Amino acid sequence: MRNLILSLIGVVLIVGAVFIGNKIANSKKKRRPVPEKVVKTVFTDTVKNGEVQIVIPANGNLVAKRRVELFSEVQGVFKPNRKLFKAGQKYSKGETLIRIDASEFYATVQASKSNLYNTIAAIMPDLRLDFPEIFPKWQNYLKGFNLDKTTPKLPEMTSDKENYFITGRGIISSYYNVKNQEQRLLKYTIKAPFSGILTQALVTEGSLIRNGQKLGEFIDTSVYEMEVALGKKYASFLKVGETVLLNDIEGAKTYDGTVSRVNGSIDATTQTITAFIEVKNNQLKEGMYLEANLNAKKEQNAIQINRSLITDSREVFIVRDSVLDLIDVEPVFFSDTKVVLKGIPDGTVILEKPIPGAYAGMLVKPYGKKNKAAKTKTPQ
């Protein structure tokens, strides 16, 4: 009997110890707080389709629209001029740029003119006897012949007999030989074809200039052009006469330009099309680097949003009853930062800024609106 009582007491002690141990162990467990479901606040915008101006960015360097590379067609010594032939020197239209010593060739021209005069004078007695009707006009020609001036044009031939007689005396060939020499004599003086500035000077006064030698470069500083290369997909957008806004690298100054020419062919290597933008401003210099924004065309019933808002599958997030959803869109034009879209109905609420990790069905709260969704707890 005593052993039975001891056994029962032992069982009770063991059960009590286990019970107390479990209770102590459970009392040391810390219950983790249940996280609340977070509703992200988003910036939204309401779609209103309208007219969107497509702007194509481009850049390039300015080049003078009118430029002349100066070459010599004759040989001689470069004679000093009123202005020094130096880079940066300004010249007005018609002003002498270069004078080459032509004293030797000038004497040759004068000798040829004298020979022509003597040849005509020698036939005057024959003209008086055989062709009295044409003698007066040739006599007047000799009276107007001045060795110090340009050789006047020969009298007009009125008959075949006159033509044969004059040609047979070698007068026609002598006349054109003199005119050829007079034209060559003019090449000893190079004049400015327009008002501008000398950008390159390769010779100095006193230098011996040879035939075919490059002397320098001369540009018109009133009008510049910028050549830009654009992707072939923009070829149908470009129009001559469109206004272009230009700005320097710093963005401090802006200039107004115009699309003056568009190349009719596409570069087979780069698959780009070349357009030329004309700009006038007295602050511009050749070689300046400018950025251009070309107004290509106007797209109707479209909107423009940040490029980061469109997905790779050409979808955008919209907000419908505080829940994100995806809809298909029709991209019309992509730039570096923007995209022009069509196919979104008016009144649709879209995201104004992208949300990291966004997905269809995500619960959101538009900025400025109170969240009506109850916070729920998720069981562990």
From TrEMBL:
Residues forming the Multidrug resistance protein MdtA-like barrel-sandwich hybrid domain are 67-216
Any one GO MF term held by the record is: efflux transmembrane transporter activity
One GO cellular component term of this record is: efflux pump complex
Pfam families on file: BSH_RND (PF25917)
Enumerate the InterPro entries for this protein.
Answer: MdtA-like_BSH
What protein am I looking at?
HlyD family efflux transporter periplasmic adaptor subunit
Q: Which organism is it from?
A: Hyunsoonleella flava
* Lineage of origin: Bacteria, Pseudomonadati, Bacteroidota, Flavobacteriia, Flavobacteriales
